[in-house]
Amino acid sequence: MGAVARAVLWTAVAAHLLLVEYLFVRYGQGKNSLLTAGKFCGLHLASVMMLQLVLVARLPWLDRRIGMDRLTVWHRWIGFGLVWTLTLHFTFIVAGYADLAALSPWDTFLSLAGVTASLLGMVAAAIIVVVASISVRYVRRRLPYEAWHALHLLIYVALGIGLVHQAMEGTTFDSTGATAYWWAVWALVLAALLTGRVVLPLWRNLYHRFRVAAVVPESDDVVSVHVTGRHLDRLPARAGQFFIWRFPGHHGWWRANPFSLSAAPNGRSLRLTAKAVGRGSAGLRAVPVGSRVFAEGPYGAFTTIHQSRPASLLIAGGVGVTPIRALLEEPGGPTTVLYRVHTAADAVLLPELRALAKARGAQLHVLTGRTGAGDPPNVPFAPANLAAAIPDIVRRDVFVCGPPAMTDAVVHSLRALGVPRRQVHAEKFSLA
Hints:
Layout: H1 2-27, H2 33-55, H3 60-66, H4 68-101, H5 105-113, H6 116-134, H7 137-140, H8 145-152, H9 154-169, H10 176-208, E1 211-217, E2 222-228, E3 242-246, E4 257-260, E5 269-275, H11 279-282, E6 294-299, E7 312-317, H12 321-327, E8 335-340, H13 350-360, E9 363-367, H14 383-389, E10 397-402, H15 404-416, E11 424-428
Parallel strand pairs: 7-8, 7-10, 8-9, 10-11
Antiparallel strand pairs: 1-2, 2-5, 3-4, 3-6
Helix pairs in contact: 1-2, 1-3, 2-4, 2-10, 4-5, 4-6, 6-9
């Protein structure tokens, strides 16, 4: 399923780019070679922006097959390509007009800034650069999730300004048909974005009317929130997926956090379990019972619909156990669970895991200790150790969720052991 979705997505992108380049060669030449290059980069800049919007539109068909974590990674890396394309577009346009008017680049820049359409393009470009700057890993890790998310929304302001800039310029294609195609694609992209990000979440929340049913402390820094609502049996949620949660009467509309379901949906309630790592998650313990909940989702491809083998291995790290615990409720073949924590006291939901493992006849192993400590070093996810613990690992589907470093280490070991990629399902808990 995932391979088909990726093929459809990238085939559509390639077909669009080829058609745009053909139309540009026929109908889009500039007044000199520099302006032609600038317009060429501008078309690709807009096409990259279209792709960026599709990747974050949260379209159910793509999300269930590829997963929001992977779509988000693609969005992030393509975003830096967007900045470089933007830089080339700006540079060629200024150089082209400077050549036409026999002015210096600085004087040309000031002259263009006096034209409304050009000024709007400059403002949109400045916003994109700011958003890209806060998305650099060094900066992103030092910003609270809520602050980063709020600043990142400025990209929609840049989108609106950029569309007005394109409409006012209106000189890329000297062809009615080519222009109609261009704006038709934009209309489809914007419709997909509005459907996935606005229409579907609003409809689901109006229909289901989510409310807090209970707040249960699991430990000193971990809490579970039970959410109920109407017709939850019609909500297309599966074990392993996550929602983006808002508690407007308690946190405000602007604060949203992605938390996995920590129990399989049963048609009557949903449960999230979170560790206090930020203001949003730390405040969940004080959410009043009966308060409103705004939930966007379900999202994620970390589900058993992608399982290809009867046997499975579930690997969790820290609070990344929440989707693993939900997956353990799903019926299936032979199952082994490896739960990695520093100490047994850090093993959240361990009694539930033990009860579920006993009911399913699954094996559960809690792996404690600090990685690298002791002699020999404690490296439970080294290839040799994984192979010794799970001799038939290459004949199992492996689901792994935890901190990024742990997830990367497990995936690397699975590749070294020859586990086929289609049997490896990984979700980094920093996103899920």
